[in-house]
TrEMBL record:
It comes from Prunus yedoensis var. nudiflora. The keyword Calcium does not apply. InterPro entries: E_motif, PPR_At4g14850-like_plant, PPR_rpt, TPR-like_helical_dom_sf. This is Pentatricopeptide repeat-containing protein. NCBIfam families: PPR. Keywords: Repeat. Gene3D superfamilies: Tetratricopeptide repeat domain. PANTHER family: PENTATRICOPEPTIDE REPEAT-CONTAINING PROTEIN. It holds the Pfam family PPR_2. One of its GO terms (biological process) is RNA modification. One of its GO terms (molecular function) is mRNA binding.
Amino acid sequence: MSHHFGLQLHCLSLKSGCDSDPLVSNSLISMYAKFTIVEAARQVFDEMPERDTISWNSLINCYVQNGHLEEGLKVLKQMYLHGFIPKAELIASIVSVCARTGELRLGREIHGLVIVDGTIKESVFLSTALVDLYMRCHDSLMALHVFNQMEVKNEVSWTALISGCIANHSYDMAMECFGAMQVEGLKPNRVTVLAILPACAELGLIEHGKAIHAYTFRNGFDSDHHCSAALIHMYCKHGKALRPAKLIFERVPVKDVVMWSLIIGSYSQCGNNAKALKLFSQMRAEGIEPNSVTLLAIISACTSLSSPNLGCGVHSYVLKSGLSFDIFIGNALINMYAKCGCIKDAHQIFKEMPGKDSVSWSTMIGSYSLHGHCKKALQLLDEMQERGIEPDAVTFLSVLSACNHAGLEDEGNKIFKRMIEGNKIQLSVEHYACYINHLGRLGKLEDAYELVRSMPMKPSTKIWSSLVTACKVHGRLEKAESFAHQLVTTEPENAANYTLLSMVHAETGNWLGVEEVRRVMRIQRLRKCYGFSRV
């Protein structure tokens, strides 16, 4: 029905006097709600001589459907004051809208109203909607309270709780709820299966995932496209279970870009980059256009293979597809060209990107650091901060590493001081290890050891190892022995640490120490793994 025809009907009802009939007025309110003319619906409601429950429900629906939640709640309260009790289904629909829009305050007000009038006890759908509301608004405790108060729970209720747990990253709790649901004698439906599979993927519960896979097969869910995609994702998340993922993928009659992206990305993440590229070619041959997720996986594969030729081919496709301005793809291309040794191409992409985030800047700075262009990395860091973009921990680590390898003492000291004084970067053991190595290379062994002692965390084996090496280089063999003992104490099961200690003992002429180290290695059955070359 057209808008103008609806207005004509309204005029006809006014002329004939039918507008006083609640049935006609209620229909007019519903009509204006569908036409999104909220003011006209309200006017019809206000002019009604008599209103029934349907009148109130229709007006509330009109407000809610058109995004006026506050007004809808006001009318709901007025409805209570006039002695009318709204339908539980109506309240559930309002709560659902609150959940989707994140209106927790309004949802809580409605929760209070339904507790007072007792509606919440009569409707499992309303209680389920409240569980969904609190879970979506990250109030898990209140969601559990509402759920536990429910006298009757069905598959939808349990699924809402499980989905909420997944959304809040409470994967263990989701698995517990999934088990409890079945103990209660309720069979998971297709939506429940779709909800629980991500928990199996995140927790690495491959055996549980296989059991759910068998359940989907027995109940005919395996033919569902979304279930197949969720199962592929679950198996792919577990690096050693690509075979069942591939079998599911091959059995799906119609494969969309999501499925192709999942399987290609999984092979890329597991290091089987050649297979990922082969699947990408197969995907193109079948006429499926890749999306940004697919291209990110393929760019990652090219990066791992250090193949600029393949990378250039993917880059050309990106330009043709119009995805060249996607910031994630741009960042991936910068990283790919840098890792393949094409720093000029990496800089060109960075330069041409219309929008850059902190990752873009960090990737380019890291690329310069990787290629030994320390001065350029420092210049870009200053430019980044001038533009109001704060560097993160990874950015500072890249620059610090560049200063370390370039032997830039003052610049390295300034970077580390900036990290400490800024109070915005949480220093990790990697930051300390890099700066301690920097001090060690410069021969400032006392400063390096003092920093080790003042560290807020336990020194890593990398730190002790770099100190040992620095002491050997600068002829401080007694210190080297002391640090080598610390290295062995920190990681006593690593044969390489004992070998380093033995070498230090040998350099100081402590042959008894060498024999003692070898004796300990024999007792603990530690053997150094020797490297080899095909050249």
